[in-house]
Amino acid sequence: MEDALDVVYRTERGRVLARMIAVVKDFDLAEDAVQDAFVAATTAWAATGIPNNPAGWLVTTARRKAVDRLRRAASTERRHRAWGELAIAWDAWDDGETPGPISDDRLRLIFTCCHPALSLDAQVALTLRSLGGLTTDEVARAFLIPEPTLAQRIVRAKRKIRQAGIPYRVPSLEEFPERLGAVLAVVYLVFNAGYLASSGTELVKVNLCDEGVRLAGLLVDLLPDEPEPLGLAALLLFQDSRRTARSDEEGQPLTLEEQDRSRWDAGQVAAGRELLGRARRQGHPGPYQLKAAIAAVHAGATEAALTDWATIVKLYDRLLEWEPTAVVRLNRAVAVALAEDPARGLALVDEPSLAGALVDYHLYHSARADLLRRAGRTDEAVTAYREARRLTNNAAEQNFLDRRLRELGETAGAGAGEAGPG
Amino acid sequence: MRYMLIIHNDPELHPKPGEEGWDELMAGYAAFSEQLASHGRPFSGDPLNDPSTATTIRVRNGETLTVDGPFAETKEWMSGFYIIECDNLDQALAAAAMVPSAKFGSVEVRPVAEM
Prior knowledge:
The complex is a heterodimer of chains A (422) and B (115). Helix content of chain A is 69%, strand content 0%.
């Protein structure tokens, strides 16, 4: 019973919560009522089994629990205010109605959680708590921060929503593109937090990559006519398809070039292609669609040597129109190096404006080192790898850079002949 | 809900009377006031004189301390305010974005605490 309830919790909580927030117009009251409903379900469903429409059962029960809580509410003022609104909401809501596709509520919830008036940290925490069905503790552990810190962050975010009057609504047509961009950025951030985490020392129950993929899929369901959510969902599937191939037996990271591509999940790749195809048919390109297209080119090469780098360069050209950032320019330069020759790529990488912008970015130096290595400029490659290593604190990345240095017959130490670190 | 729009400007960036952009700025403010009026909800707002005209008072241990100048000497200073009535933050933010000085400085949007 308990596992089945877990599944219902993960899949239905977001929808039920979204409905309740719309009804009671109070984040905290809605959350408490939904929690009460799940507790009641544990007992009730043990006897009767899980109902055909668990969401409907939960919403009906949560409404009753909300009333109970209001009756017990310490603050008289809160009771009066909330009663008035509840009465209005329930007049308009027939008891016999089973909640149909209540995608609207979850859309409102996502856009509220990702409102730009909230800090990015708060947006991520709130989104995972409200739509991800994760407990505060699970979110905290996934981001490696103490639970009380995350709990405080969420409390402050909800307080800001209340006090600043952040509305519970889907943005208007004019606001929509920018606000959707913010939502996609949060989901991408969640996925990347999982993607970049070193193969952890602790068994983390919740995988942020799974959550990212799920949230992206939810956005596609809620906004079926929007191409960028399709692009993001496709991108995450392509990236996630490499999950088991990304590290070797010792858990050390492998580059795209080194990975055993037979271990890339074909099902996810196929699903990614399908979503990207759907996006393309909309005829409105965008940055996530372009990033997904680049990932698709990689996925299409059965061996690294067969990668169609020329097409990737063209895709980066188009991506630069949307995101004219130093990082995108860097990635394009690497693609140019592999499409043409390392010298061409290095010329782009060494451009003063780019070098200046990324001087403190370890991936800039490791990319530069890689091109220098390919060009046979070994001494310069070693210097660049050492600079990259100096700039990163990530153990997995440090190990990778040490490996590259060893391959070049060097260590992380400053001079030749100096003993390496253990 | 009521919100205060607190306008801060960098005097080096902000057009001054007689300079290029000044007339456009003033026209922008007139249009903004008309916009607010057309919504039929109470609002107020005024420009402030520059910080050199300010005097700051603190009362400590029954003693009044009077100091020439604003609360804090900063590069950007408070140049004006509006108090507007809106349904929610999104409306207030949309209004703030229309304040002409938003192009040269910043507009803080803070809810008025309803007691």
